Amino acid sequence: QNATGTASDNKIKIGILNDQSGVYADFGGKSSVEAAKMAIEEFGGKVLGMPIEIVDADHQNKPDIASNIARQWYDTEQVDAIMELTTSSVALAVQAVAKEKKKIDIVTGAATTDLTGKACSPYGFHWAYDTHALAVGTGGALVKQGGDSWFFLTADYAFGYSLEQQTGDFVKANGGTIAGSVRHPLSSTDFSSFLLQAQSSGAKVIGLANAGLDTSNAIKQAAEFGIVQGGQRLAALLFTLAEVHGLGLEAAQGLTLTEGYYWNRDDQSREFAKKFFERTNKMPNMIHTGTYSAVRQYLKAVEKAGTDETEAVAKAIHEMPVDDVFAQGGTVAKNGRMIHDMYLLQVKKPDESKEAWDYFDVLDTIPGKEAYMDPAKSGCDLVN
Amino acid sequence: MAKPLLEVSNLNAWYGESHVLHGVNMTVGEGETITILGRNGVGKTTTLRTIVGIIRERKGEIRFDGKDMLGVPLHKTAHAGIGFVPEERGIFSTLTVEENLTLPPVVAQGGMPIEEIYELFPNLKERRSSPGTKLSGGEQQMLAIARILRTGVKLLILDEPTEGLAPVIVQRIGEVLKTLKERGMTVLLVEQNFRFASRIADRFYLMDHGQMVSEFPVSELPQRMDTLHKVLGV
Amino acid sequence: MTMIFGIPLQAFLGQLLIGLINGSFYALLSLGLAVIFGLLRVINFAHGVQYMLGAFAAMLMLQYFGINYWFALILSPLVVGLFGAVIERFLLSRLYKLDHLYGLLFTFGLALTLEGTFRYLYGASGQPYAVPAQLAGGTNLGFMFLPIYRGWVVVVSLLACIGTWLLIEKTKLGSYLRAATENPVLVQAFGVNVPVLLTFTYALGAGLAAFAGVLAAPVYQVSPLMGSNIIIVVFAVVVVGGMGSIMGAILTGYMLGIAEGLTKVFYPEASNIVIFVIMAIVLLLRPAGLFGRDA
Amino acid sequence: MAVAATHNHAEPRVVLSARGLTKQFGAFAAVKNVDLDVHHARVHALIGPNGAGKTTVFNLLTKFLQPTAGTIALMGTDITKTPPDKVARMGLVRSFQISAVFPHLSVLDNVRVALQRPNGLSTQFWLPTSALNRLTARADELIEAVGLKRERNSLAADLSYGRKRVLEIATTLALDPQVLLLDEPMAGMGQEDIGTVSSIIREVAKTRAVLMVEHNLSVVADICHHVTVLQRGEILAEGDYATVSQDERVRLAYMGAEEA
Amino acid sequence: MSDMTHSSTTTVRAERSATASKTYAAFLILGLVLLIVAPAFFYPIFLMKLLCFALFACAFNLLLGYTGLLSFGHATFFGGAAYFSAHVVKEWGFPPELGVLTGVVGAAVLGLIMGFFAIRRQGIYFAMITLALSQMFFFFCLQAEFTKGEDGIQSVPRGHLFGFIDLNSSTNMYYFVLAVFVIGLVIIWRFINSPFGMILRSIRENEQRAISLGYSVARYKLGAFVMSAALAGLAGGTKALVFQFATLTDVAWQMSGEVILMTLLGGIGTLIGPIFGAGLVVTLQNYLATSQFPVTIITGIVFMVCVLVFRRGIIGEFYASRLGRKLGFEHRH
Ligand SMILES: Nc1ncnc2c1ncn2[C@@H]1O[C@H](COP(=O)(O)OP(=O)(O)OP(=O)(O)O)[C@@H](O)[C@H]1O
Ligand SMILES: Nc1ncnc2c1ncn2[C@@H]1O[C@H](COP(=O)(O)OP(=O)(O)OP(=O)(O)O)[C@@H](O)[C@H]1O
Ligand SMILES: [Mg+2]
Ligand SMILES: [Mg+2]
């Protein structure tokens, strides 16, 4: 047994723990496991002469199942690091377990900044994105593009509030104004009432501070009511390529959003995406690629530390820059936050799209330092 | 005896594991009125329900009009010409009185037209648009009988048709049954009301322990009175 | 500008209309639920899934066979109805003898399975389905911009509701159906083929759900989750209306749609629970529901 | 027969009275302006053609239905607005026209469930069921009195219709009510049971009031002290059986030509 | 449904139930011994989870199996109690025993409120009303400040039981959970085999008759409902301590569905059936998590198969089997 995380068992075992059958399955799901395998294959399946194994599990969005599996993986199956961890309740629960067991976890699937704030862990890392970065990306950058008055459609729970509030702060910081907001219940089917209110507010941008199907439905119905044709812009605060694909360009055109990665941005990203597509039949979003990047960086850290012992590997991750298809010149802060550039994207019109999955124009690049919260202000007690 | 319309031989029936009928034998001739007598719980109702086909756990032989009925599905027995009025009446609460009355499909010519039925049971006419189960117990019984008269079946099976009815109504039902008989209807009924039964029946079966223990025509009634008193406690 | 409760009259009218549109979906769905419940005494937990299947069937027909919206509007309910008939005939019908709760539990399992399967095959984020060209665009009513398609939804669902109500309350078939609910054995003894009737009923209910699904496809995202998001609300609608009352289900559907729409304007935070609150109040004052016959 | 606990005043006094009782079902008045007095130590019969409103009167008196108009008093207390379970606890207990038993309890348990309430044994969730054993002796007495001894341990569901009615009488008696309302207690019973039940009712009525609906006129003639005839929701005639049965209107509306 | 302990009637039955009680006692002792030594063989956190869900299912079954009321809203009590316990322990520094107790009381209050509305209707109506009300509670938890939205209340300290037993040791925690479980089960057992339980049964059999005998049916049902809610709360509060968090999963309607599945699988109306059902479901979910099968599909299929063919559940089928009968268990209906 490996209770203190010191002795090595001569193999590297990585666990991918995410939602594979529920509402967030498109976000990462089984395809993320493929992305992780791609990273492992780049290492030839071995690091420091030790074989690399991968296990994965579907936590069904239930923190108790996730926590149970994480414990069993760490305690009895010699898993060295757990990654992805979709949804914040799961990520927080597993990070707590990992911290207690002195094991590594890298979150790519959850958005809450608490992971690198109040709940931070010396062995816990947050890759890919968080609510702060999304807010800065969409809120800040869009104002610069002329979208200076906002109306929010906010999902009526903590996640929605924090997105609205953070985004609103950046809108105001950049000289924009908030014309109003309306809170809609989680999993509403009909948004037309709210959209009419947004429409009559006259704001230039309608910010969708919600997620998943709610965002999709709101966008689809906005198209129906001719909101974008009416000259208003839609900005989705948490939306990825996978959902745009589900919505179709007809309905999604003109939508603005922020992601940490876009496959059709440059040659490097295209090359990775093509390989990923061959294996999964879909193009990667920031979560898939983020998981790939996290696995790759973890393996590099093991290589650098010369061991799979937790403390040493964690130290190496903190020290090494991240340079791969996902992040260029990324750094890992003391609180575990991986800081990298984000992209403000706009959905193309159907006739502008040249090939399948060619969905976005990159409007702007937000430097990592701006996108992510200053670690000193994160509230994490590891930073001082 | 007239040509047999219904022949039952060695009929056995079960409720789950409990064996209730132990080889019932009986014949009902065309145009006859037959009454089954017996104490509570000897299996009278069960006999009727088995003949109609509601109880499917059954063995033996049931011939109706020469045809073997054992394999016939329940919804075809009415079309073969058997009409049933259950003990619990079976009036539908979501249907109006009139809908109840017209519910059973007409299976053959010669049924009673609605107007005639309303003449026979003026209560029903008066309440024809109220929900079926809002009728009183007795009114429901009338409705249950009335609705079968419409369908033109050959054999009418009645389970305790006079239970809970006021004496006037009992008399009226007795008259109705006599009228039907004159028109050639065959009737099989279970009855506790001995006086009523003796007025309309041609023949009696006495039932005990899931079997027919004796059979006699109405003419033998006087000499059998004593035994019947003993068995039935009349 | 005229104001109503601090809201411009125009906006108010707009919201009223939108409530009516949502009410159409509630009405169609609760109608199907009430038909199945009223006649089979089964709470069809799979109703939401059948609604979802309707939308998916339309989407797949378009994708694989190029069948357009108008044909899908007829074909998809038929397909889903047929599927319902098969389920009823071979599985659900075996539960009628038992406590009604088993029907609820069975359809619950069915709903889980089907939703899971579609999520597995198509992901959760859904699929696009466009408004048919003939109904695209909108008209300016003066007080609001009304997408033509939404107007169509109101009209056609109203027709479907009335048609179903007539079928059940005013025809011979309907009286067989109602009688079979109460005492199937006796109705069968009268010479009616009850099992076939019940199968037809379930298929009818499922078909109505699918019909609502096709209507919804161009408006809402065609997603495996679309059914479970709406079904619990529809349950509450049916409780408020009084289960087993067909007309009650229809009227309550429209009424609650409007009530919900107005809440979205005056106090949007409560719009998801307003129907449940109304349900609680109705239960206190009229336990059998607004239109229910007393149990 | 130890059916009735002994009370010793047998003088007739009114225990249950209704004034102006009316029940409207929509436009249809099932009961119209009925005055009724039920006396202690008397058997009172309510007869009348089918649909006259007898069961409805029962439902009103026991508060299973709320009267549209009129008042009801039980032993001097106004119960017009009292809920049915409370009325039962006050000593007014009924049986049903269609038999009402607990089908999957044994005959013994059916009776013991009824005994539990007056004995204050119904809310104790911390006691074992064996606490009910002290009711068994009394339950057996009642079972024996109604002649169900042989079926004591069968499930109520397995009894034939007539035997269920008998069981229902036993459970009703178990509550030792001051006023019993019996809705066609003899319907569906064989002659032997009719005899038993008649004598039970007669016995019981020595110390309490009984109001019964019955179509079996020989029973009515035999055991009832007082008869009220209802027709179309209204009282048609009242008096002892001999008087009532001579009434021309009653013969026409109810008994028919051949009876009596 | 068979309840072996019911001091029964027929001589045959009495004999049988004597055999049954003996076999039953033997099984109980065996079971208890197994549970006491179990941590040596199984992963303790898994066992604790199992015990919590088993207690939850038993509490649910108290309502469904013995009063015939199908609640589709029991997640409210389970998850609600988890939130209450987690909150008072984490934010107000309550000791664990008081934390769990707070959960129980909170769940009982919720039960009183929900029951007040729901018992006005029966059967399927009841199920739908509880479902709707629990959905309302879900939205409340989603929006309330203290539940921390979709993050949930995390890092709840386990603390020291009675001030001196350190629950951070998983052995101590396990035996604490086991004790809670046994206490809960004893309460349920006593409840259903009491005079009160007898009235509940008769109400299920014939409500009108029970009213006419003078029982205020609504109060009895409400009593059973609150009892069931409180015990579900006991399970939920304990679970919050075991996992050290309380999240929305436990108040979502899917959780209400899961507990029905557990009870159905184990055997409705059997005292120990739900324990097996819970064990099976928890194991299955854990197993499916790492398998290739999508969880919902399998769960749904298990549900349907259960309803169609194993309606009596594992334990129910066992009682009805020849071996079960030989051992003296009988199955009515
Ligand atoms: N559904 C049932 N399940 C099990 N046993 C039953 C069922 N129905 C009736 N029995 C039993 O079958 C036997 C015959 O019942 P049946 O109803 O045929 O009697 P009956 O002669 O019609 O009596 P009654 O005059 O009281 O109506 C009785 O002993 C009764 O207890
Ligand atoms: N809930 C109700 N709604 C409407 N009408 C009703 C209702 N209950 C009874 N009635 C009507 O009231 C009248 C009296 O019914 P009630 O059951 O009291 O008759 P009854 O005298 O007991 O007759 P029976 O001797 O046949 O049982 C009947 O015409 C019946 O149709
Ligand atoms: Mg009978
Ligand atoms: Mg009556």
TrEMBL record, chain B:
Region forming the signal peptide: none
Domain ABC transporter: 6-234
UniProtKB keywords: Amino-acid transport, ATP-binding, Nucleotide-binding, Transport
One protein family per Pfam: ABC_tran
Superkingdom of source: Bacteria
GO MF annotations in UniProt: ATP binding
SUPFAM superfamilies membership: P-loop containing nucleoside triphosphate hydrolases
Gene3D superfamilies named in the record: P-loop containing nucleotide triphosphate hydrolases (3.40.50.300)
Similarity-based family: Belongs to the ABC transporter superfamily.
Protein name: ABC transporter ATP-binding protein
Organism: Neorhizobium turbinariae
Automatic annotation (TrEMBL), chain C:
Keyword Magnesium in annotation: no
Protein name: Branched-chain amino acid ABC transporter permease
Transmembrane segments: 12-37, 49-67, 73-92, 101-122, 149-168, 189-218, 230-254, 266-285
Pfam families reported for this sequence: BPD_transp_2
UniProt keyword Signal present: no
Bilayer topology annotation: Multi-pass membrane protein
Originating species: Neorhizobium turbinariae
Subcellular location: Cell membrane
The entry's keywords: Amino-acid transport, Cell membrane, Membrane, Transmembrane, Transmembrane helix, Transport
Family: Belongs to the binding-protein-dependent transport system permease family. LivHM subfamily.
UniProtKB/TrEMBL annotation, chain D:
Pfam families referenced in this protein's UniProt entry, alphabetically: ABC_tran, BCA_ABC_TP_C
Domain (ABC transporter) ranges: 16-257
UniProt organism field: Neorhizobium turbinariae
Gene3D superfamilies noted in UniProt: P-loop containing nucleotide triphosphate hydrolases (3.40.50.300)
MF terms in GO: ATP binding
Keywords: ATP-binding, Nucleotide-binding, Transport
SUPFAM superfamilies xref list: P-loop containing nucleoside triphosphate hydrolases
UniProt name for this protein: ABC transporter ATP-binding protein
Automatic annotation (TrEMBL), chain E:
N-terminal signal peptide: none
Topology in membrane: Multi-pass membrane protein
Superkingdom: Bacteria
The keyword Membrane is assigned to this record: yes
PANTHER family: ABC TRANSPORTER ATP-BINDING PROTEIN, HIGH-AFFINITY BRANCHED-CHAIN AMINO ACID TRANSPORT SYSTEM PERMEASE
Regions crossing the membrane: 24-43, 50-78, 98-117, 124-146, 173-192, 222-247, 259-281, 293-314
Subcellular location: Cell membrane
Name of this protein: Branched-chain amino acid ABC transporter permease
The organism's taxonomic lineage, starting at the top: Bacteria, Pseudomonadati, Pseudomonadota, Alphaproteobacteria, Hyphomicrobiales
Keyword terms, alphabetized: Cell membrane, Membrane, Transmembrane, Transmembrane helix
Pfam families per record: BPD_transp_2
